[in-house]
Specification:
heterodimer, A: Rossmann fold, about 40% helix, B: about 450 residues, alpha/beta, 2 domains
Chain lengths: ~325, ~450
């Protein structure tokens, strides 16, 4: 693997391959010494143009467990406001000998631009770009679903026939996009439920069923209910009247949780707005995988870094 | 006074007939067969099409204020390279062209460069801020004789201000050239809104944001009995609105850019900022509708929206990149590829949409006139049989932000003749000092005479 920029276009074998390596990595995390020498001497740069402590420390933990050297580069603000261009930053990192750059950026496509620029030869991992994709989040979600579904027998399997409903701000969600593509590749059936204002205006080509009614979606008793975070800045931009109405219509309340029945999984990429898109009852229920998702995140990111940096790098 | 003579032999005129063209000074003296070449510079135009010098109603020359992107000199060199003999300079300079002083400065810069007639466009509102009318009358009465007013880059979105502007310029037969973009519907917009923008996670620029403003403006123009010009029409829906307005007798004219006639939004998928432009590249259906509209006269003209930017403004992530493409050097080849090769326009139509009508809309005398004895010697010679990979060497302005680099394009501008003098010959833009010296001589003669 040369870069990981999107889940769209990632083929099924490659996706399952990453998840299987992540299984091995998860085993490492249960040992007393949670460390492998695989990436000794490699340098991984976490290049974060947005605050995201959760994602950054997850990548940092992953790189360190593989014995890579980690440099955290927080370049908050866009190139325009900050004064240094992405190009100059990239060339600086290249000169320092970065082997991989894990990049979080507010502009959709920025990791794509970096990977194709010729400014830097390092492998690029997209850690979330604008409202485009967040491939490692989707991989860790898939890993978590597979684990719940198949347990110890997960290796080599996809998510065939799994019915996944994703609820919330799809329009602005890179998590939703990456999940839609990856889940489809792995054989799951995806339903998107949101206020019409928070769905892209044209969903042609999205392998998903679209709905506006959470109660109808709950009554379908999907295997997985994934709640997306509502960003504060959406509150006052006429996407919906107010938080109360959003919660009433699209929040996973205790009552809706009860109707889902047992055996269902409730997921959230975090950080959660308790009481808004997800009730405390749902967040803390046995169905919730929120903490498993965090643990899976480290394993999946270890797998991605390992596949990116170990052995011979593929030619560009 | 020494009159330079130039004889162009065996050119194909826009109507398809072949003729020699004899230029004396800055005037076409004779058009016909077997003209004498005595003492004249001769240009062999066998196989070349002679067009009236191209006129661009929509050029960003960047000077004053953004000389790192383009200057009047370099921008008009790009114009000469593309076969243009006149360009209308948009008002979004720094300072903004919203006073008589700035438009007169632009006019002077154009005169001393000498490559093309530079006709300044005045801003509609002070500082393009959309709040108060600029001194439209003063700009109209200035030496720059401004007749076209535009806040291009910004929409005059306030309906009352737009109404007043349309009404006010009637006093000097001006026209408002509207950049139709409803600002609230396009906050943060990055590309055409549709299936692709949803997938790429780029904020959408919906077609309705253009169409709703055009619909409002044609109705305003009808109500107050004023002329309206619509800049860079980009959607099939806009074409429908303009077609309706024209059928109703509303005095509206419209332009389309070469890039909206050829390129589609699919190019955005690789996040290459060279394809970032405002209005954005649209769907293939829109491109088809724009071609049809240019062919049936719903859209009157092609205008380049030549928008040079320094390299760093494009060599970055998509959101941070500037909007715009350079277009002067490539315009005729793109029109050739988009509407001539596809059988929609003949060369006489090209002369109309790229020279005669833009000059008429902008009320620019001495340009866009037919190739006939007694008319100004503003000419372009074009080789329609040529074909080559468009490259950096074809760009003669400062901007290299062309979406066509590496594309195989038809045709080649062989010569551009402005005021009887070749500003570009055999693909080489003439030396600036030479052009300036020529300009100085003729200007002096004009003053003396």
């Amino acid at each position: 693997m040369r870069h990981l920029l999107t889940t769209r276009g990632l083929d099924r074998d490659a996706a399952i391959g990453i998840l299987d390596v992540a299984e091995d990595m998860a085993d490492v995390s249960t040992r007393e010494v949670k460390k492998l020498p695989a990436l000794r001497g490699k340098t991984v740069v976490n290049l974060f143009y947005e605050d995201s402590t959760r994602t950054r420390i997850s990548f940092e933990a992953a790189a360190k467990r593989l014995s890579a050297d980690v440099i955290n580069f927080s370049a908050k603000g866009s190139s325009v406001s900050k004064g240094e261009s992405l190009k100059d930053t990239a060339q600086t990192l290249a000169a320092m000998g970065a082997d991989a750059v894990v990049m979080r950026h507010p502009a959709s496509g920025a990791p794509h631009t970096l990977a194709g620029s010729g400014w830097i030869d390092a492998g690029i991992v997209n850690a979330g770009d604008g409202t485009h994709e967040h491939p490692t989040q989707a991989l860790l979600d898939a890993f978590t679903m597979r684990k719940r579904r198949h347990g110890e027998a997960s290796r080599g399997r996809g998510l065939d026939g799994l019915r996944v409903t994703i609820v919330g701000d799809v329009l602005h969600s890179r998590v939703a996009r990456s999940n839609v593509w990856l889940l489809n590749t792995l054989g799951a059936e995806v339903t998107l439920v949101a206020p019409p204002t928070l769905l892209p205006v044209d969903l042609t080509g999205w392998p998903a069923t679209i709905g506006y009614d959470l109660d109808a979606a709950v009554d379908e008793k999907p295997d997985v209910m994934m709640m997306l975070r509502i960003q504060q800045e959406r509150m006052h931009a006429a996407f919906f009247p107010n938080a109360r109405e959003y919660t009433r219509r699209w929040g996973l309340s205790q009552e809706r949780l009860g109707r889902l029945g047992t055996g269902n999984i409730v997921m959230h990429p975090g950080p959660m707005n308790r009481g808004l898109e997800i009730s405390a009852a749902a967040a803390d229920s046995p169905s919730s995988t929120v903490r498993e998702q965090v643990a899976s995140g480290v394993s999946v990111r270890m797998a991605v870094l390992y596949l990116l940096l170990s052995g011979d790098r593929e030619a560009n | 006074m020494r009159e330079t003579k130039t004889l162009i032999t065996a050119a194909t005129l826009p109507d398809g007939t072949r003729a020699d063209i004899l230029i004396c000074g800055d005037t076409i003296e004779q058009v016909g067969a077997g003209l004498s070449a005595d003492g004249a510079r001769t240009i062999d135009a066998d196989g070349l099409i002679a067009l009236p010098g191209l006129v661009d109603l929509h050029t960003h020359l960047r000077e004053p204020g953004y000389e790192q992107s383009e200057t009047v000199l370099t921008g008009t060199q790009a114009a000469a390279a593309g076969g243009f003999t006149a360009v209308f300079a948009m008002a979004n300079t720094s300072p903004v062209a919203d006073t008589a002083g700035v438009v007169e400065q632009e006019l002077s810069l154009g005169e001393s460069a000498g490559y093309a007639t530079v006709q300044p466009i005045g801003a509609v509102t002070v500082g393009l801020a959309g709040e108060r009318l600029a001194e439209l009358g003063a700009m109209a009465a200035s030496r720059a004789r401004v007749r076209v007013f535009s806040d291009d880059g910004h929409c005059v979105s306030d309906p009352l201000l737009m109404r007043r502007a349309l009404e006010y310029v009637k006093a000097f037969d001006g026209v408002i050239a509207q950049h139709a973009q409803e600002p609230r519907l396009t906050e943060g917009a990055q590309m055409n809104e549709g299936a692709l923008s949803g997938r790429l996670g780029l904020a959408g620029w919906p077609a309705v944001a253009e169409e709703s403003i055009i619909a409002r403006d044609v109705l305003l123009a009808e109500h107050v009995g004023s002329r309206l010009h619509v800049c860079h029409v980009s959607t099939a829906g806009s074409v429908d609105v303009i077609r309706w307005a024209k059928a109703r007798g509303i005095p509206v004219t419209a332009e389309v850019t070469p890039h909206h006639l050829l390129l589609t939004e699919d190019l955005v998928a690789g996040y290459d900022a060279r394809y970032k432009v405002n209005p954005p590249l649209r769907r293939a259906e829109d491109v088809e509708a724009l071609r049809d509209a240019l062919a049936d006269g719903t859209i009157d003209i092609v205008a380049t929206d030549h928008a040079p930017h320094p390299v760093e403004a494009k060599d970055c992530e998509w959101d941070a990149a500037a909007n715009g493409m350079v277009g002067l050097e490539s315009a005729l080849s793109i029109v050739h590829a988009a509407v001539v090769e596809t059988g929609r326009l003949g060369w006489a139509d090209v002369a109309r949409v790229m020279s005669a009508t833009p000059a008429r809309i902008g009320q620019l005398s001495g340009h866009g006139t037919p190739i006939e004895p007694g008319q100004p010697a503003e000419l372009t010679l074009y080789d329609p049989a040529a074909r080559h990979a468009f490259g950096r060497a074809d760009l003669k302005g400062m901007g290299v932000n062309s979406p066509y680099l590496g594309m195989d394009l038809p045709g080649r501008v062989v010569a551009t003749i402005h005021r009887g003098y070749p500003t570009m010959l055999d693909g080489t833009v003439r030396d600036a000092a030479e052009i300036a010296a020529f300009t100085a001589t003729t200007t002096k003669e004009a003053v003396n005479g």
